[in-house]
Design goal:
The chain has 716 residues and is of the alpha+beta class. The protein is 35% helix and 12% strand. The strands form three sheets. Strands 1, 2, 3, 4, 5, 6, 7, 8 and 9 form a nine-stranded mixed sheet that branches. A four-stranded mixed sheet has the order 12-13-15-14. The C terminus is likely disordered. This is Myotubularin-related protein 12. It holds the Pfam family Myotub-related. InterPro entries: MTMR12-like_C, MTMR12_PTP, Myotubularin, Myotubularin-like_Pase_dom, PH-like_dom_sf, Prot-tyrosine_phosphatase-like. Keywords: Cytoplasm, Sarcoplasmic reticulum.
Length: 716
């Protein structure tokens, strides 16, 4: 049975942003609804612009029943061109991947999105010419390689008025003052200094304009190998230990070059490692963590579990859900990354040892580990502005290659890897384990992951600060339309109104208490967690300091050979990590001190909101974290209105003027899909394994029951 909403008679035009151009369109397109196995849907118009693919039906023009969490840039039926993952055509009930030039045009179009939505369009009732135009247009504009200057980012920047919110508190780290302030905040300015050596990008186009290095590093050293082999400062712990990163030398080198680099590294090493006063541990992440290719393979398998076309597919996979989930290896990668971050935190917090993270470019896994360590150890990074500043520092200015890793330009799938998504997945584990420690919510993280594919903001659409600066000035694009004023994703008012932004802020956040002025002269505050750990310094040994006899071996390995075995051979007892981990978890949580994630067994979970939000069969009616948060927000609104009422009554006590209290909005019964998919029908099948469902398919009374326990023990 096909339930058809009749074709719309009135003309519906897409809402176009500044700089957005309509490229092609097709009328009488039928969009299937995803809720169940029936062919219900609605007729409308399918359009493609230089920014998005959009489906317009008569509901698109209605402002009635608008969701509370409406995105002002990307609507419910909009897909930005960068958000398109794969496009399939259906020919005689057979699916075929669509790329390049098409000889034959499909009767159905299925679009899989990177935010895990699935759109199903029937083109059977559309004119043949329109089918050719819309299908070839969508495939061409979303799948074929494009130049950087062809991104919608530039069209929007040159056409949109620049009226962004100036109250944004995020530190952008694009000035010398920002870096000096961060050094001052972390008390790292005793041993480290900001350098201007790369002004004009004379050292390297991959390095930021300004960065921080140990005081003893000379300008000549930085210039010698374009910044390679130089320890770059990330963050300083309260006890003075610092987290550093370094881009290694290329692995394939001739002997003479290798000897020169060895001597250079020897000199650098001697300047920064001075045992027993300055201890240093080096960690080559390329050998101690999964490769980018492994991460990409795992995520590709993982996301397939959630790109569900129909109800039948969902119930078919539900029976073997755990084995399918385990076989992807995605949760195991998250566990390994979190474990590595705990190891680094142990070195900094407990052993008072500097940690140097090494990677070929120091812009992928270095960014993940350094960001996670700061989120775990620095409560400022758990505030919204602090977390945004952290992303700016380590990722945006730090030079993470968003264009390549997200494959925004469709140039090479070989370079694609969900590195930033991996970080957000790891942070989510901490957010769901310790909600009061974070000023932001899981909804904030979900929206941030969606913003990766919105080319209205420059934040996630460049590979380096140099590329952003030259693009903004118009130099690299050979265009007269520069300079461009790019928007930053951190101005959430561009995407959401204040009511919607409330869902990004955590009402359970335990704000840091302000210190008592009378106690200022007392001893320096130490984290509650740190006081529970042994503060005695372990007896220094030759190996811990990596003395001279091991330096040659170390340098040789940094220059290209595997150093995992060497690095991991620590002097500490094998159970040192376990002891640190279990000792911390045996104490009460200090939400403003060190936070260690639980990583054993089922503690590592699937980020349900991001991955299950478009699957109605997986929703919890009246439940889920976000439904609870929405209720708390309602209560807070009621308390605030009562406070206003009390203040009014107090001020008007003399006149005796009385006003009625405005009652808060009555929340509808929400589900775990809220706020992304508000109005969802319940699945037509009960949450039973497929085999059980097939046995019971003829029992109509079971299907009609709602939220009722059915005892099947007699039938099994």
């Amino acid at each position: 049975e096909i339930h058809i909403k009749e074709p719309i008679e009135k003309e519906v035009n897409p809402h176009l942003l500044p700089g957005e151009l309509l490229l092609c369109e097709a009328s009488t397109v039928y969009k299937y609804m995803q809720e169940d196995g029936s062919n219900r849907g609605t007729y409308g118009k399918l359009v493609c612009t230089n920014f998005k693919i959009s489906f317009l039906d008569d509901d698109s023009t209605s402002d009635d029943n608008e969701p509370e969490f409406k995105n002002k840039i990307v609507g419910e039926n909009d897909i930005t061109l960068q958000c398109v993952d794969q496009i399939y055509g259906v020919y005689d009930e057979k699916k075929k991947l669509l790329t390049g030039q098409l000889r034959k045009y499909p009767e159905r179009l299925i679009i899989y999105c990177k935010d895990l939505r699935v759109f199903n369009f029937c083109l059977r009732y559309t004119k043949e010419e329109e089918v050719k135009r819309i299908v070839s247009g969508i495939v061409h504009h979303s799948q074929t390689p494009k130049l950087l200057k062809r991104l919608f980012l530039f069209s929007y920047a040159s056409a949109a008025p620049n009226n962004t919110d100036g109250r944004n508190q995020t530190v952008m780290f694009d000035t010398l003052e920002d870096w000096r302030d961060e050094l001052e905040r972390t008390k790292g300015n005793v041993k480290y200094k900001t350098v201007t050596t790369n002004e004009g990008y004379r050292v390297s186009e991959k390095l930021p304009l300004y960065f921080v290095v140990p005081i003893c590093i000379s300008e000549e050293s930085i210039l010698k190998y374009e910044g390679r082999g130089i320890p770059i400062w990330c963050w300083s712990c309260h006890n003075g230990a610092a987290l550093l990163k370094m881009s290694a030398f290329p692995k394939e080198q001739d002997d003479s070059t290798s000897q020169m680099q060895k001597a250079f590294m020897d000199g650098i090493y001697k300047t920064i490692s001075k045992p027993p006063y300055e201890l240093l541990k080096m960690d080559d992440l390329s050998s101690s963590l999964p490769s980018l290719q492994d991460i990409q393979t795992a995520y590709t398998r993982f996301k397939q579990l959630f790109l569900i076309d129909n109800s039948t597919d969902f119930w078919a996979t539900d029976v073997k859900w755990f084995s399918l989930l385990e076989s992807t290896n995605w949760l195991e990668i998250i566990r390994r990354v979190l474990k590595k971050a705990i190891e680094v935190a142990e070195c900094l917090e407990r052993q008072h040892t500097n940690v140097l993270l090494i990677e070929e470019s120091a812009t992928d896994l270095c960014c993940v580990i350094s960001s996670l360590v700061q989120v775990m150890m620095d409560s400022y990074s758990r505030t919204k502005s602090g977390f945004q500043s952290l992303i700016q520092k380590e990722w945006v200015i730090g030079g993470h290659g968003f264009l390549e890793r997200c494959n925004h330009l469709r140039k090479s799938e070989k370079e694609e890897a969900p590195v930033f998504l991996l970080l957000l997945n790891c942070v989510w584990q901490l957010v769901q384990q310790y909600p009061p420690a974070f000023e932001f919510t899981e909804t904030y993280l979900t929206v941030l992951s969606d913003s990766l594919y919105v080319p209205v903001f420059s934040t996630f659409f460049f590979n380096s600060q140099h590329q952003r600066d030259t693009s903004a000035s118009g130099e690299s694009l050979k265009t007269q339309s520069g300079p461009f004023r790019f928007l930053t994703v951190w101005d959430w008012s561009v995407q959401f109104d204040p009511k919607a932004q409330a869902f990004l802020n955590n009402p359970f956040y335990a704000e840091k208490p302000k210190p008592d002025k009378n106690q200022r002269k007392t001893a320096r505050f130490k984290h509650q967690r740190q006081l529970s750990l042994p503060l005695t310094q372990p007896k220094p040994s030759t190996k811990r300091g990596f003395f001279r006899e091991e330096t040659d071996h170390l340098i040789k390995n940094i220059l290209g050979k595997r150093i995992g075995k060497f690095i991991n051979s620590s002097d500490d007892p094998p159970n040192s990590f376990r002891e640190f981990y279990e000792s911390w978890h045996s104490k009460p949580v200090d939400y403003h001190g060190l936070l260690l994630p639980r990583i054993d067994g089922p503690e590592i979970k699937v980020w349900a909101q991001r991955y299950l939000r478009w699957i109605p069969e997986a929703q919890l009616h009246g439940g889920g974290t976000i439904a609870i948060t929405a209720k708390i927000l309602d209560l807070m609104e009621e308390v605030q209105s009562l406070q206003v009422k009390m203040d009014e009554e107090h001020s008007q006590a003399v006149s005796g003027d009385v006003h009625s209290v405005t009652t808060p909005r009555n929340s509808a019964r929400l589900s775990s899909l809220f706020p992304f998919a508000l109005l969802q029908r319940q699945s037509v099948k009960p949450a039973l394994p497929t085999s059980t469902w097939k046995d019971l398919e003829d029992e109509d009374d079971l299907v009609k029951r709602d939220d009722e326990f059915v005892d099947l023990s007699g039938d099994m």
